[in-house]
Amino acid sequence: MSERIATLEGTLFALLEERKYSTIRDILITMNASDIAGIFDDLSHEGIARLFRLLPKELAAETFVEMEPDAQELLIQSFSDNELKEVVDELYVDDAVDIVEEMPANVVKRILRQADPEMRKMINEILQYPEDSAGSIMTTEYVSLRSHMTVVEALKRIRRIGLDKETIYTCYITEEDRTLIGMISIRTILLSDDDDVLSDIMEQNVISVSTMEDQESVVQMFAKYNFMALPVVDTENRLVGIVTIDDAMDVMQEEATEDFEKMAAMTPTDKPYLKATIQETFKARAPWLLILMLSATFTSLIISSFEDSLATYVILTAFIPMLTGTGGNSGTQSSTAVIRSLSLGEITVSDWLSVIWKEMRVAVLVGLTLAICNFVKLLLVDQYLLQNPSVTPIVAAVVCITLVFTVIFAKLVGSLLPLLAERTGFDPAVMATPFISTLVDTMSLLIYFQVARLVLQI
Amino acid sequence: MSERIATLEGTLFALLEERKYSTIRDILITMNASDIAGIFDDLSHEGIARLFRLLPKELAAETFVEMEPDAQELLIQSFSDNELKEVVDELYVDDAVDIVEEMPANVVKRILRQADPEMRKMINEILQYPEDSAGSIMTTEYVSLRSHMTVVEALKRIRRIGLDKETIYTCYITEEDRTLIGMISIRTILLSDDDDVLSDIMEQNVISVSTMEDQESVVQMFAKYNFMALPVVDTENRLVGIVTIDDAMDVMQEEATEDFEKMAAMTPTDKPYLKATIQETFKARAPWLLILMLSATFTSLIISSFEDSLATYVILTAFIPMLTGTGGNSGTQSSTAVIRSLSLGEITVSDWLSVIWKEMRVAVLVGLTLAICNFVKLLLVDQYLLQNPSVTPIVAAVVCITLVFTVIFAKLVGSLLPLLAERTGFDPAVMATPFISTLVDTMSLLIYFQVARLVLQI
Fold it and tell me: Which of A1, A21, A30, B86 has the fewest CB atoms lying closer than 10 Å?
């Protein structure tokens, strides 16, 4: 929360204490809905209900959309049917859907009962699309025009119906049966002559997505093409809705956050960090740590089986964390690069050969560099400077040979696993981290002890 | 690249072979600039130059903006002064700045020489702002209106000057000296009556950013407020430019990618994965791996100093990867959560107490859960099932006590370090990963051996 808002919040709380409602109202109406919602989050339930009723209709609905689901639910429960209807009437259909998706069944029923039939139909239509599909994030409130309209006619229609539409900046030209044949920006309309006909000035090569398209590819298209809105069509190329850039931006941020969480071995939650309860955070984190911990049984087994040799060459133990660590870091670098490139659409699964070829060349270079540096360091620092007699050149060689193979293996696994996950329909980000670290830890130890056996003859 | 574009690319290459330029032109003009640029990236330099000249002026400039810097540079070098001028004239100023920033000095000079004086002035103005500031990502091409104008007058002005402006969807109302006093969307203008005066219908509480504001906070404001554009003002609240949502979206994606790379211990590069050369990828990855590898000297030292005791209790070695691994994963969970929340603006440094309090409670819960599960697993699997006689209940206790403290320490470090980095002006994402893993590895071993000494009396 910015300082300015924090100051306003203090003032509002003081005024609420003194019940100076008209002053509060005067302040609230100068504020942005997001900021009001932010202040509501810090208020008691009863306080929210009192302040909310001070807001003018439109600002009230905008603020409602920005509030946390818990607060929305409490507020709905305090609404009379009439009050609920007023808010629902002001909502855009995609916002209404977002709210409905978060509410328990009985609240959903109340909301749908208060929505007018047209709105109810649209909400139900969007709700039928699978989560994270283009259909689920679109809105059905767009401006459609006909190709025979002139600029003047188009402007007249926009001015008549535009108030209820999510965006009027991009308008779509459809045929009678809603087949999408063109698009035109309000900019082009305004900058054209009054009697130009839309069919002459519209963009005919419309890029659209199907309702079932994954929301991540929708975001990629926005990033690639700099659209303000993207039309969503059914299998017969009939326009069913649009996704606007501000919603695409929200999805982009959500998807990135989810990837961060998955790659750090957490189950994504859609709650902001400090809003999630201890139980929720625990549930998101503990299972993955548990799986990773239990899968470390492999590393214990390998070390145990090598116990006798380790008893003679205890110094080998000293480099285990460095080796598994370097392996893990090398693998993470590759997997992160591949996962991010996949989600940005920079590469697809079909690029797997180029990816491996690139990673292997980098791996050899990196592995050799690390090995040489480490060899010098072991002799210079560990043996000479720290006077550790066990760090002989032959032990250093064992460590450094292992390093080369570990880095190569880690980068291979790190780049291949996300691609394999994507190919088989799993989420690259989820599959990647736990499997890679377990695999790399296990493999680096196997390589280490194998090299030690061969070189040290133990 | 989508299948549709790949097919078109094949066709175009075949047509280029046969020099059927007019057919190529007919196909190109139906395509989107991004897609054309994508195809150019796969062409020879000479091929690009030939195809580029087929494009109509506006599409040519749009395509040029979307091309890779290397290809842009080669193309500029093949341009005559006149051709260069034609492209530069069509560019929006913020796109021109992006290009200028990537080019070597002699190319920049040529570009600026061909730009008209007004454009040159604007480019130089934007170039003076520090990288990653609001000033550096804004454009100076916005529509400004006066508060006394009527809707009809405003529309007339927009239609007259709008063609050269990056966006006409949001217009800004300024005084003579460019002081920002209001904003109005083209939507509001269109949906108002012809003789309404702007001062009555404009939004007076304009949220703006200063030129020096970090681009990350600009992105946060777009995400929070659902703006289409954000005005950028100087210290005297005079309007100097605007940031449009499509540019903010690009910045959002870049910033997320940078954070992914930094958190995976890589130096961010702005090249797409497969475009970066082996040398570039090597340079981005090797230094961090090297630092992390060398910092693992601490763990070697600790293990070496414990060598004698380890020789008697070799079984303790078997759990080192599990302990450092679990510590690392616990720390990564916390640091990722904190880093992401910081960059989304969900928390600020001043929330550090709430963060620590939350993390500590989660850490205790997680630590105990893991310890109990691991204790049961050690006795059930390792001792009973795998018949490893060294895994006694007392050894299991040592491992599990260590686990609790390691998780708590890791989550403390993982949440504190990013906050500390942010507080001292470092990038949380960079500071976090290397320091945390080194610290946690070292500390978990210290805890492990200390607990072992105490419990096993060695």
Answer: A30
Is the complex ipTM higher than 0.85? no
What is the total residue count of chain A? 458
Q: What are the residue ranges spanned by the domains of chain B?
A: 3-128, 144-253, 296-456
Distance between CA atoms of residues B287 and B280, nearest Å: 12
Q: Which two tokens stand for residue A134?
A: 């283009």
Count CB pairs under 8 A between chains A and B.
348
pLDDT value at position B285? 92
- Looking only at the bridges linking them, the beta strands covering B170-174 and A170-174 are unpaired
- Give the 3-state secondary structure of residue B105: helix
Enumerate residues 162 to 191 of chain B having a beta carbon within 8 A of any beta carbon in chain A: 162-163, 168-169, 186-187, 190-191
Residues in Cβ contact with A387 at an 8 Å cutoff, skipping those fewer than 6 apart: none
Q: How far apart are CA A232 and CA A220, in angstroms?
A: 15
Cβ-Cβ contacts under 8 Å, A263 against chain B: 260, 336
Indicate the angle between helix axes B245-263 and B428-456, nearest 10 degrees: 30
Calculate ∠ Cα B269-B273-B276, nearest 5°: 65
A243-270 per-residue burial string, b: 16 or more CB within 10 A, e: under 16: bbbbbbbbbbbbbbbbbbbbbbbbebbe
The residue type found at B197 is: V
A56 φψ region: left (φ > 0), alpha (ψ -120 to 50), beta (else): beta
Give CATH superfamily name and number for B144-253. Answer: CBS-domain (3.10.580.10)
Yes or no: say if B405 and B447 are a contact pair by the CB < 8 Å rule. yes
Asked if B303 and B445 touch (Cβ cutoff 8 Å), the reply is yes
Cβ proximity of A347 and B273 under 8 Å: yes
- What type of residue is B32? N
Looking at the DSSP assignment, which residues form a beta bridge with residue A183?
A: A172, A203
Asked if residues A38 and A28 have their Cβ atoms less than 8 Å apart, the reply is no
B296-456 matches B3-128 in CATH topology: no
Distance of CA B438 to the CA centre of its chain: 25
Superfamily name with CATH number, domain B296-456:
SLC41 divalent cation transporters, integral membrane domain (1.10.357.20)
> Given CB atoms, is A287 within the 8 Å cutoff of chain B?
no
* Plot region of A445 (φ>0 → left; ψ -120 to 50 → alpha; else → beta): alpha
Could you confirm whether domain A144-244 is CATH 3.10.580.10? yes
Q: With contacts defined as CB-CB under 8 Å, which chain B residues touch A183? A: none
- Partner-chain residue, chosen from B163, B272, B293, that has the shortest CB–CB distance to A191: B163
Q: Position A126: which residue type?
A: I
Tokens standing for residue B151: 């809707």
- Within 8 A by CB and 6+ apart from B209, the residues are B134, B217, B218, B221, B230, B231, B232, B233, B243
Residue type, B351: D
Encoded tokens for B345: 């603006």
Say which CATH superfamily domain B3-128 falls into: MgtE N-terminal domain-like (1.25.60.10)
Residue found under tokens 């002799």: A379
Q: Tokens representing B346? A: 């969900």
Give me the amino acid identity at B406: T
Q: Is the pLDDT of residue B1 over 70?
A: no
CA distances from A69 to A41, A250, A268, A271, B48 (A): 10, 16, 17, 10, 52
What mean pLDDT do residues B373-387 have?
89
When mean pLDDT is compared over A116-120, A194-198, B13-17, the highest value belongs to A194-198
Q: Determine contact: B294 vs chain A, CB below 8 A.
A: yes
Cα three-residue angle A427-A429-A430, rounded to 5 degrees: 70
Chain A residues 238-277 with CB within 8 Å of chain B? 245-246, 248-250, 252-253, 256-257, 259-261, 263-266, 272-274
| Crossing angle of helices A278-295 and A297-305, rounded to 10° | 30
Chain A residue with minimum CA distance to B342: A273
Least confident of A252-256, A384-388, B440-444: A384-388
